Amino acid sequence: MASIYGLKPKFQSLLRPSVHWLARVGVTANQVTIFALLLSLATGHVIRKNGGRTLLLLPIVLFVRMALNAMDGMLAREHNQKSALGAILNELGDVVADIGLYLPLAGVPGFNPWLVVAVVLLSVLSEMTGVIGVQIGASRRYDGPLGKSDRAFLFGLLGLLLGLRAGIGPAIPYVLFAMILFLALTIINRARAALLEVRARAAEKCQPACILWRASSRRSRVRLAECKCTGRGAHRKYANAFTLRIIRAIWILRCCGPPSQPRFARGLGQ
């Protein structure tokens, strides 16, 4: 589904010269991530305390943070700065920064606090759903329609209009309610896309799809193997022990890869 996230490659190409300069002067990806987090928390505190014209800081800081988020990833990938700590800081930093920037809006006149809390909560759940994709064997999911960049654009636009006193107060609850609906759809889309990706990878790995090798003999009646990828098993056939061992080895290699991967419905060759 369409999302502002799709513009990221072009945005990164504009930032690449600055990223190269940061790498030359010794700035690390983790330092950029932490700076973006602190900037977000400080801005949220200022908005919570003062409101009014300070809402004009919201679009500026959100744009700067978007650039910093792109730059820390480029530093990690393109300048050999990837690390386990960096991965943790990147995911947690984004979530905490979102909370620090958006949750203070619950105390700003014009914003319904319960709707703001709901948006923030669903935003966290949507990012968590994206990360869970990695845990189940898919890629990190960034599906829309309301990803991190889209939320930043909407909140930044609201902050700009309110800071300029454009009189959009009555429309804000409707915007927040629409964001709640789109965030719920985002969570569903990310979960669904992750599951489809896992299934596609399993089907790709299990090619050709579970060829059922057959043999006939009057000596023994056994079930062959059950494929780990699809859960399907070969039909019962008569086969002697020697033939069955050969069939088992070929079938396992053709269907599921190494012999350690399949599980067996019943002992073979017995």
Give a verbal description of the structure.
This protein is mainly α. It folds into two domains: 4-205, Four Helix Bundle (Hemerythrin (Met), subunit A), CATH 1.20.120.1760; 207-270, no CATH class. Helices cover 62% and strands 1% of the residues. It has eight helices and two strands. Helix 2 (29-50) packs antiparallel against helix 3, helix 3 (57-78) packs antiparallel against helix 6 (148-163) and helix 4 packs antiparallel against helix 5 (113-135).
Overall number of domains: 2
What is the highest CATH level, the class of the largest domain? Answer: Mainly Alpha
On the 0 to 100 scale, the average pLDDT is: 80
Spans of 5+ residues with little confidence (pLDDT < 50)?
A: 208-239, 259-270
- CATH homologous superfamily annotation of the largest domain: CDP-alcohol phosphotransferase transmembrane (TM) domain
Shape: globular
Order of helices and strands: HHHHHHHEEH
Beta-strand share of residues: under 5%
Q: Report the CATH architecture of the largest domain.
A: Up-down Bundle
Q: What is CATH's topology name of the largest domain?
A: Four Helix Bundle (Hemerythrin (Met), subunit A)
Q: What proportion of the residues is helical, as a percent range? A: 55-70%
Through-space gap between termini: 53 Å
How many DSSP E strands? 2
Which terms summarize this structure?
270 residues; mainly alpha; Four Helix Bundle (Hemerythrin (Met), subunit A); 2 domains; two-stranded antiparallel ribbon; 8 helices; 1% strand
